[in-house]
Amino acid sequence: MTFALNRRTFITLAGAAALLPASAFALSSDQARQLVDALVAEINATIASGKSESAMIQDFAGIFDRYADVPIIARTAMGVDWRRASADQQKRFTEAFKGYAARKYGGRFREFVGGRIEVRDVVTVPNGVEVRAMAILPGQAPFEVSFVISDGSGSPRFINLFIEGVNMITSERTEIGAMLDRQRGDIDAMIADLQKAS
Amino acid sequence: MKPVFVSLPVLLALGACSVAPEGQSIHDPYEQTNRQIHEFNVGLDRALLRPASQAANTLPDGVTQTVTNFADNVALPGLIANGILQGDVKGASTNTFRFVINSTVGFYGLFDVADIIGLYEEDTDFGETLAVWGVPEGAYVELPVLGPSTERDAVGEIVDMLYDPLGNWVTDEQLAYGTAANVADKIITRGAFGNSVDSVLYDSADGYAQARLLYLENRRYDLGQEQSDAYIDPYADPYFDPYEDQ
């Protein structure tokens, strides 16, 4: 079923990786892989912690903050409208986006109890280094989860992720665009919607 | 069964495939109609599929897994045929071994023994066969009941439904069991991914656009196609918007 794959999308967001020392040089494959290994370990630990859903969502928000370049993901999701937003709107939007992403993706992680993510391959891509992993969940065929790592922010962070080809950035860009359309382009109203969305 | 009947509509439909303009990742000239069909499909989900899937979720795992195994197994001859048509020797062989093992040791496919020994299904369909043969993707379409598709995949789905190689070996009545298992499997899958499907259909600001994007990205990934917009560098130009007006 087509819709079914979307769930895999949620796994992805789970990822946020460990902070690594910033390098003046281009990001190496090893650095990217270390980041994803640490990220996966934190996700797995959270899933296995047995905490309540709301506590897990808090944990995932923290992981997202530490491993992902949240400002650049938020900005990219907003697209051209970012340019006409005021500095204050940009700041509030980024904060709202962080909470939204943690609720939307983190809230579903409990479904992955008993599963694991295994890194398989590291390749250089036009916008950074892509770490490809397989998610292995009980009773399901394994599927690919991949993280794009960049040090464009000054330290290695993940800037996008794919689950079986489904791209978080394009998906959230579509979603934020639809929220803006629904509010006839009113950025403040869209931010208010985003604060409630999951 | 009767490939002659299939070929005429196939040719007509393929001739009508519309080709996306260069560099456009979403080609949706029938959007207005598609959105109406989407509304219909969401209504159908709300009234039937969603409640049925919630009921399926209450069944013991052993029951649903057995139904899924059986449905997967009866689908294998179709997968094998498509693998052969694509010249995919490895995929067709893997699926053939799966079919032999699960139909015998797995007791008519009720148990998935092949999975246990690491022989995973190589999923494919006639839409992929058409892609391998060079037929263009065509426009995005949302089909009633069946959901998101493209012109090429819609033709594939029709061909796969009309022509099931399993029909050469079993009676029509036995074939009907396979079809029933297939429908039940769809309901079970809808239940297993319940929250995620709900998120797209009911929580999203534009469920139609989300479903369209998810389908196209996942389908192109499955077919091994390059996605030009997959690796945009957000630091190079964070304001660049290749998806404007979606």
TrEMBL record, chain A:
Query: A Pfam family matched by this chain, by name?
Result: MlaC
Q: Which InterPro entries match?
A: MlaC/ttg2D, TAT_signal, Tgt2/MlaC_sf
> Which UniProt keyword terms apply here?
Signal
Q: Where is the signal peptide?
A: 1-26
Tell me the protein's name.
ABC transporter substrate-binding protein
Q: Which organism is it from?
A: Marivivens donghaensis
